[in-house]
Amino acid sequence: MTAKTNAARQAITAASRRSAPEIVCLGEPLVEFTLRGGSAGSAPVPQEPPLYQQGFGGDTSNTAIAAARQGAAVGYISAIGTDAFGTALWDLWQAEGVDTTHVQRHPAAKTGIYFIMPHPSGRSFTYFREGSAASRLAPADMSADYIATAKILHVSAISQAISASACDAVFRAIDIARSHGVLVAYDSNLRLNLWPLARARAVTHEAMRLCDIAFPSIDDSRELAGLEKADDIADFYLKAGARVVALKLGADGALIATPTGRARIPPYPVTPVDATGAGDAFDGAFLAAYCKDGDPFTAAKRAAIAAALTTTGYGALSALPRAEETAQRLADWKQ
């Protein structure tokens, strides 16, 4: 082997390492349709015929894209159909720079879709996801080589609620990550239309015990942990084993807690239109920043900005910011 050939191979290897995902997300993507003419604070304006804006959703897919827009190298483990919706998601990930080498395409299974209707008290969701390609994920689909090269594995309770095999797949991915020193981030996203509260509690409590970065929300935690106060909820998840708890408080911002300190992160001021995907944007921006310097408090400020800006547009991705805008907003933010 010549010195020139050896140098070329070393350069290729180095480039491959640089392009390997820092963050690997796992879960179910969805195509979304949002009824236009309404917001989280007002009823939709009647229209004939009703107008729906097509977008993309699925909590871990949203998180993957949010992290990629903040400059992180991100990969996704999932499955989609070969239908038009699956192709649209595939094209989306290519455009957003999300690695899809571990996204399966199933000719016999469909891609899930859902509809969002804003109303005065929030939003209502109608899902068509039963038997989706992603719900067929199983432990054997989890690649140890792929997960082991990441810094962080991100999963959520929704990924565990869609089927028993997907639930087992998430736990298999967590086991792989922990055995290779990869941090595990877990969002408690609670959807009681997918599973009963008793099972949700059992599964999410076990997953939280195995995670390093916990992303509970105040509303989920009141159901899952039976606690009301933010500090009590943070203590609950720290005692479970998390090294960082990023408790999302909705319009009240976030509470970031570690074994050695905690801080309230105020909400970034915006005029919201639709809160869909805000929590996922928070997760993705937080993980992208945390990968860089390991500071959860700075990461949370960037995450708060990303989450807030996401609410200024319809759907999960239309107003999701990129790194440059987040950085500028952070520099100008007078807290």
Write the layout of secondary structure elements.
Layout: H1 3-19, E1 23-26, E2 30-35, E3 52-57, H2 59-69, E4 74-81, H3 84-96, E5 98-106, E6 113-119, E7 122-128, H4 144-148, E8 152-156, H5 157-161, H6 164-179, E9 183-187, H7 197-210, E10 213-215, H8 218-224, H9 230-240, E11 244-248, E12 254-258, E13 261-265, H10 278-293, H11 296-310, H12 323-332
Parallel strand pairs: 1-4, 1-8, 2-6, 4-5, 8-9, 9-10, 10-11
Antiparallel strand pairs: 2-3, 6-7, 11-12, 12-13
Q: Low-confidence segments, ≥5 residues, pLDDT <50?
A: 1-18
What characterizes the major β-sheet? 9 strands, mixed
What number of structural domains do the residues give? 1
- Class computed from helices, strands and strand pairing: alpha/beta
Explain what the structure shows:
The chain is α/β, with parallel strands linked by helices and 335 residues long. It has one domain (20-329): Ribokinase (UDP-N-acetylmuramoyl-L-alanine:D-glutamate ligase, 3-Layer(aba) Sandwich). Helices cover 42% and strands 22% of the residues. It contains twelve helices and 13 strands. The strands form two sheets. It has a nine-stranded mixed β-sheet, sandwiched between helices. β12 and β13 form a beta hairpin. α10 (278-293) runs antiparallel to α11. It is globular, with a radius of gyration of 19 Å.
Summarize this structure briefly.
The chain is α/β, with parallel strands linked by helices. The chain has twelve helices and 13 strands.
